[in-house]
């Protein structure tokens, strides 16, 4: 065996599973099934259009979701916690930019009482004032600690800069926001958005045969309501493209470079994401090899392309030693320019394609991964056919196509540069 030669890469095509079975609660609320009879775990997820985008105050959506288990019309916070513990289940609220989610995992033998419990938390939370005060106090403490981290300062400044602070994506939390939140804000937000008709439901794992009927009995009683309209927001990026946030005692400087761009509904998205992987999307990427391995400026660096409802964004993220911040920035721009001037070699491109093919395999490894992958399509009005097109586009991509994408999207004047620390 010659250990100086890398293993031979063999091409393969991942199997994309069939679309989930679709049913409806009360004939109009989507219910999707991802059964897996090999597990003893039952999963129920409720996904509601009640994310950060749905409210002008940056704390209200996440606090609403976080406090659903802090007391309901029939149970106190302590009683809910004891029930969750008794049934051996895991309850996880989640608030994203565009949607909020309630996830619950439980042994299948407790699927019915756990579903009743989730219905109680979804439909009749009371948001007790004392529990809200505790949540706000804990969050404020965490907020103040995070203010001392250069990474947090860079993340927030980057969001404000590329989206604008008038857009919910860029309206980041400030200390004054904590004193503004009232119980009525959460109650009003919940009453408006947390409706079955504003949600879709997902069952996964070991699904009892009568569970769709149980969900219909619990969640199907809602009177049909009008579609909830949300305001249309405009992106207003900051005209000042380079922001430096001085942190005198910083050992490292946080760097974020990028711009608002297309989301996955644009046909260029797969090629732009492939280009992002070449630049900084995996351990052998150009930024990793240059800035981490060769120069030693950082412990890690990566680039990403993220898709949101209103747009997408591209970002390069790292923390470099404060004394080498400027050289690190120079090397980042150097690697971007190389992608615009010179075609990617076939060997390098094939390596990235094989890496992404492997990632595709992991995207369907178990029902939880399958659900996450499916949601990444469904939330943008697409199905698994999108993944087939995405995969075929990447596998067939040529160096010439990526050179064209680099020159069309990596426009120097569009890049925002945020540095927090020392420069």
What features would you describe in this structure?
The chain has 423 residues and is α+β, with helices and mostly antiparallel strands. It has 2 domains: 21-219, 2-Layer Sandwich (Cytochrome Bc1 Complex, Chain A, domain 1); 242-421, 2-Layer Sandwich (Cytochrome Bc1 Complex, Chain A, domain 1). It is built from 14 helices and 11 strands. The chain has helices spanning 60-66, 77-86, 111-123, 129-146, 150-163, 183-193, 211-219, 269-280, 286-294, 325-341, 346-362, 367-378, 384-395, 399-409, and strands at residues 21-25, 29-35, 41-48, 90-95, 100-107, 199-205, 242-246, 252-261, 298-307, 312-321, 416-421. It has a 6-stranded mixed sheet with strand order 1-2-6-3-5-4. A hairpin with a 3-residue loop joins strand 1 (21-25) and strand 2 (29-35). It is globular, with a radius of gyration of 24 Å. The model has no long low-confidence stretch (mean pLDDT 94).
